[in-house]
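Notes, Module 5: Reading structure tokens.

Key idea: the token line is not a picture. It is a compressed description, and you learn to read it the same way you learned to read a sequence, by spotting repeated patterns. We will look at two proteins. The first is printed below with its tokens.
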Amino acid sequence: MNIEDELRGALDVSAPPPTTTLDHVLKRGRRRVFARRAGAMLGVVAVVAGIGIGATTLNHAAPDRMPADQPNEAPATVEHAVGWPRVSTPPQVPHGTWTPTVSAPAGWPTPTLPLCDTKAPSIARHVELGGELPPQEFVSTWLDQARKLLPGFTLGDAEVERARTEYRFDVSDSRGTGSIRISAARFAGTPLANADDTLWEAGDCEPARRLLHPNGSVAQLHSVRPYVPYQTLTQTLDVFRKDGLLVQLEMHNFGSPSYHVSDPRNSTSVQRAGRPTLPLSEEQFQKLGLALAEVG
């Protein structure tokens, strides 16, 4: 056997058993802790990245957020001032525009109001407007309800103008005093047919606004009409009740401080200017019409 064979024989033995020391255990433990922490960190990073991608996707899909106290600047589509819709029919063609006369008080706003023709109703009535005086109890009950509906106004007591069988009462606030006149009639036929028949009675250019009450009554609000002297404004609201009673409310921009009752006819005439505007908005006036349709 030569030297080469002896060396191969010396190396061809089992490897010595591994030796485990405390230093080896600590090193191995540190490596495992590091690997576990690294894996956890990678998992967190992946989760956060996933949330970020999901949130970005949702933000693109959802509408833009707006703080609760920031108003929406988009164009409004709801008409807040008036709740009753106009009758669906073509408007009249104006034949002119009203122009105030020299009797109009200086400094008052000049309304631009178109003028259109009036059309008298064609359905015959049992009692014409102003021919029937509503019972005092009926008017008082309605006025009590009206005061609840208009807490910011002072509504006077309804006084009878005997020659015309009508009531009138003042409507006042901090801007001045106006008034409302109440007259009545008895109609034949249905409330809706009579409302259609009187659609252009007040000389409106735009179709009147109308409420069809569930109890069968029909309320109809006409446009503002100007008169002289003193730039007098009037707006009419008709309530065709289910019991065949027509009650008309006529709102004016003048009240008892502006008109004089002349005897013996006991009729009123305007002696001085009232207030620049009507005392109630259309929405407030409509509340009174609704109450008239419901009062017993």
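Here is the second protein, with the sequence above and the tokens below, as before.
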Amino acid sequence: MNHSEGQLDVSYSGKVPADLLSRLRAELLQTDESDRYRLFAALLANLAEHHDGRGNGRDGGEQAAALSKRLQASAEEAALLRDEITALKADLALSAKQLADEQGRNQEYRKTVDSYRQRLEEIKKREADLEAELVAKNAALHKAETAAERFQLQSQRADLALKGHVARRWA
């Protein structure tokens, strides 16, 4: 059987009506691929049994049965492979979702780390400002202490000068 552009050509006998083949083709195209192979296998097995029952061409029946078994095995293998593909697609989808979730968490962690880095930089800047302020206050304190010591020394000298001046006057 040969088909091109939707037309069926029966080149082996010409005894099969074209509309029968068209209807059969249309029905088979509406069937799932694995079911279609199982249907073909069952049909070939049925034809082989029918052919064997009439006693005609035992070799043809055995070939049809062997082909039917191979077709059924191929259909089962195709179904298993489709199931495996479906399972692998589900695993891939799950892995993709997990990856997206991990990437989202990673982004949140990066935001948190960036926030902490920014806060750390602000704290370091504040620390540097406070250290500069402390150095300035220490310098001012030292200057004030030096001035106080100078005033105290001047006071003591003035006090001594006054006592010496008073003592000379009384003497």
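Summary for the second protein:
- Residues 52 and 59 are 9 Å apart (CA to CA).
- Residues 1-12 have pLDDT under 50 and may be disordered.
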